Amino acid sequence: MDARKRLSLLALGVLVLAGCKGKGSPEGIVSLSAPAEQVAADPATVPKEGGPRIGAVEMAAPVYLKPDRRSPKIGYLRAGATAVRGEKPAAFDDCQGGYYRVLPAGYICAEGSASIDMKHPILRALTRRPDLAKPMPYPYAFVRAIAPNYYRPATKAEQFQYEMRLKEHLRSYKRLQKKWDAIEVGANDVPLDAEGNAIGEPPTEAPDLPDQELYGGDGNDAIPWFFQGGRKIPNISTFKVPDYAIITNRVARHAGLALIGTFVGDNDRRFAMTTDARLVPTSKLKPARGSTFHGVDMRKGWELPLAFVRVPDAYKYDTSKRSLEKAGKLAFHTPIQLTGKSMRIGETRLVEAKDGTWLKDSDVAIAVKPSELPSFAAKTKKWIDISILSQILILYEGTKPVYATAVATGRDGLGDPKKTYSTVRGTFKIREKHVTTTMDSHEVGNKFELRDVPWVQYFEAGYALHAAPWHDEYGKPRSHGCINLSPIDARRVFMWTDPPLPTDWHGVQASESTGEGTVVNIHP
């Protein structure tokens, strides 16, 4: 049975949480406590490929296990997204527009947060979907200076009214734009195979990307129809304002944003649109393209033990004279095959590379073969092994390692997770998976908002595996408890774990209906 047929029999679930150690959001989804009941179906209520669609007209449109608001929420559609539905509602009950059964499972109420009118302004306006084929599923940017979140395009006068010292800012931007907006080679520049394994080196120079592409555009700099003469789409942000508002709030420095559109407005100024249909002037943004670091496919000649260089100034050494003679520099994040031999010279512990040179073990994150595998490592069962001391993640299928990489766990190491920024230890299971979700944290020492963090997989309370496009320090503890991965690795792990992500959905929750989530084994 293929994945789509299997998923059509499942009831799916998602849970939107607010970051590591975060609280459940108002969109929190109840865990399933029992298998879905069979509902007698009129053939016209059953969705079929190529059939009519229903779309989300608010930031999230819940999908219910049954055609009943009292039923558990098993998923949601992201604003602007659509899913195949049945031709007729399956029930009305407490939904005046009717509950439509959708693919691959569940029911959406065609009222309030969802509509079957494909000409609805939100469905016409928010057409850009996350690109699941890329490590960075949207164009991303970080706020370089406190920026306004405009509700509609601001006139020149309004820009000067709401942005302090704007004259000086624009003068500096005009002079330094090329430097300020310069980009580096990013995660999406690395070629990947169908599983998400890197199959080639990134280019030596960053691509020459126009502002249109950097900030989420479609090649047209004209003000879109829904912002001409004011705002012509409803507010879907959680920040509520009256329809006549010019600005919603301000975005703090260092905040991370995902972008779905851009245009040039009044004052000859470019604006970018975020996923909740608010606007930010791009002169106050810095494009973020994510690290090119990635792990290795263990089925392609690699074996344990191996290591990843985790410091910028690492060297390999010739120890033939029982001294540390530099034998060459090691590139940051380079994977190195080890022999398993180690030695000490004075206070320095070294490990041997396959080419006969030696590395300081403090310079590398080392993936080793465990002396004893856990009891659940049987047959082809998928499980994830994470070592806090080694800062290593390994994907296993039974006893066979299939992928290994360096990660960044809680910055307080083996401390008490209840009292420190440490990662929980124990055996867990993936509870739910999200293509993107919003997180708040104190990463890099300042509290800042992280909207649409990619490839989030919660496994215990607010602890998750997720991409961390805001840093490149994989192999070192630095998070507030979550497991930080590079965008390439986060997508690779996300696409490998169970339960699988269904088409058109933004997430899936493990349950009796969907099957178990992949085991996550975290140890010292």
From TrEMBL:
The keyword NADP does not apply. GO terms for molecular function: transferase activity. InterPro entries: LD-transpeptidase (IPR050979), LD_TPept_cat_dom (IPR005490), Transpep_catalytic_dom (IPR038063). Its EC number is 2.-.-.-. It holds the Pfam family YkuD. The active site is at 466 (proton donor/acceptor), 482 (nucleophile). Residues 382-523 form the L,D-TPase catalytic domain. It comes from the Bacteria. Pathway: Cell wall biogenesis; peptidoglycan biosynthesis. The keyword Ion transport does not apply. Keywords: Cell shape, Cell wall biogenesis/degradation, Peptidoglycan synthesis, Transferase. It is an enzyme of class 2 (transferase). Transmembrane segments: none annotated. Belongs to the YkuD family. This is L,D-transpeptidase.
